[in-house]
Amino acid sequence: MAEPAAFGIDLGTTLSVVAHVTDAGQPVVLPNTEGSPTTPSVVLFDHDHVVVGEIARQALATEPESVVQLVKRHMGSAWTFDYGGVSFRPEHLSALILRKLAAGAQLLAGPVTEAVITVPAYFNDPMRAATRRAGELVGLDVLALLSEPTAAALAFGYEHRPSGCTGVVVDLGGGTFDVTVMEYERDDLTVRATGGDSYLGGANLDKVLFDFFAAQFEAAHGLDINDPDVLSLEECTQVSRDWLLRAARAKHDLTARDRTTVALQAAGLTLRVEVRRDEFQALSRILLDEMTEKMLDVIGAAGVTPRDVSVVLAVGGSTRIPWVRARLHDIFGVAPDTSVRPDEAVALGAALFAAQRQLERGGALVLEAETRDYLERLSVTDVAAHSIGISAFENTTDDLHRPVVASLLPRNTPLPHAAERTFYTLRPGETQIIVPVLEGESSDPELCRRIGVVVVDGLPPGRSDRQPVRVTMKLDGDGILQVSAIDVSTGQTASTTIEHTYLAVGGDEAADAAVRTLQVD
Ligand SMILES: Nc1ncnc2c1ncn2[C@@H]1O[C@H](COP(=O)(O)OP(=O)(O)OP(=O)(O)O)[C@@H](O)[C@H]1O
Ligand SMILES: [Mg+2]
């Protein structure tokens, strides 16, 4: 029996979008229950009822203790949002957003049971694992996690069928900045390098304007809104949220016009502030320079120069800003292509990838013949965004031991990939071997992030030093890591999927249940 097309979900920091491929072979965005193609990734708790989207966003200023936003920035961390005695992890809050998206999609395209969810290319293993779990919490079969820039490249490729050229995707969203360099060659889309910053996006620009407002307010009224003697913590939170909303609105205005006026209120005082576009542009220069530096770094890692790039895809809402586009034009010498809508491209690409996954596993999809052929021929190769290795000791010439990172999977390795390396124990009599797994670009373990550990236990006592230990690492197509270590002489093995070490924290039952039972509108 023919199966319905699976869904592509862009679970964004500020906006989320769901799409699918129609029977006629067209990837389309499915509007939410309010009829909007994008849903603000904001959650409002109201007793046993949850509201996700624009209404929740509007409540940010008035009910700050019940509203949560920018959840994606906490993905993969131990951060929680507490409401009604329940601690919600980032994946629980994301799951509530997914339920809202599914409700809208279902009205137009049937039950949402299978989906591809996108993640920033720069997301590391715990962040990806948390995203996958968000889907699983609401009963979704997550067909794959796909990097957001790769998804956008796919949507563009489907639309324009480029071949024999190098492209770059620049995704400047609400909370993250991703750059990916790829090659289009007939039916192959091959990512060469990727990088970015998971803390750089439109929200940083909002903060730039917010700081400008605070400085103006202080100049006019002699009042520093960040001073705890001036505003209580509660008042400060409320003013901050209100001003940040106004900052975002002013930022949007300044994309369309040369100046805008903002009305501010705090501690019973008011102020009207005029912001000029050139002023905002000057204030945001540092962020743009940071972005440029990261971009050039990724382009260098791909082994090309900006002038080799013939297709520049600007995605993410923040690339609507004229001086962001101008900067891209300056760097690459070509105007950025925005033919696929910046805030929809990622979801559309994810929908195409979802259909491809279904075809790959032999699904009887109802799909127009030309699209089916295209998707069946298409091959997509992504890369690892971070180097992964283990913490080890290196013998120095003076016979001391220096801690170093022994890399197994260098950054930009094509996925999936497996690597193996043998290490030797340091001291005699070791009955336990601890293998710390690290992620990062430094050779100093202190400067890398520890993402898990593999422990080989119960080894016989009295052994000499220099016992061989073989470490194997596998990164799957989703960028999720599995590590195993084997003590060669005894054959004793230990392994871990890093996903599991992160999830072994436990104590989430109340939030897990709430995510499934709360009414979501
Ligand atoms: N016209 C505009 N001018 C300036 N900024 C805009 C405009 N439209 C949208 N933005 C900004 O784009 C951002 C949202 O973009 P997008 O929807 O691509 O992000 P996201 O997918 O939620 O985030 P991320 O990809 O980082 O997870 C917000 O910061 C928003 O203020
Ligand atoms: Mg995005």
Give an overview in words.
By secondary structure, the chain is an alpha+beta fold. The protein has 3 domains: 7-200 and 287-381, 2-Layer Sandwich (Nucleotidyltransferase, domain 5), CATH 3.30.420; 202-283, ATPase, substrate binding domain, subdomain 4 (Actin, Chain A, domain 4, Alpha-Beta Complex), CATH 3.90.640; 388-503, Substrate Binding Domain Of DNAk, Chain A, domain 1 (Sandwich). It has 13 helices and 27 strands. The protein has helices at residues 54-58, 90-109, 125-137, 148-160, 202-221, 233-256, 277-283, 285-301, 322-332, 345-360, 369-377, 498-503, 509-517, and strands spanning 7-10, 15-21, 27-29, 39-40, 43-46, 49-52, 67-68, 81-83, 86-88, 114-119, 141-147, 165-172, 177-185, 188-197, 259-266, 269-276, 309-315, 379-381, 388-395, 401-409, 417-424, 433-439, 449-456, 468-475, 481-487, 493-497, 519-520. Strands 1, 2, 3, 4, 10 and 11 form a 6-stranded mixed β-sheet that branches. Strand 24 (468-475) and strand 25 (481-487) form a beta hairpin. Helix 2 (90-109) packs parallel to helix 13, helix 4 crosses helix 10 (345-360) and helix 5 crosses helix 6 (233-256). The longest helix is centred in the middle third of the chain and has 24 residues, at 233-256. The radius of gyration is 25 Å and the shape is globular. The model is unreliable at 499-504 (pLDDT under 50). Magnesium ion is lined by residues 10, 12, 148, 173, 316, 346.
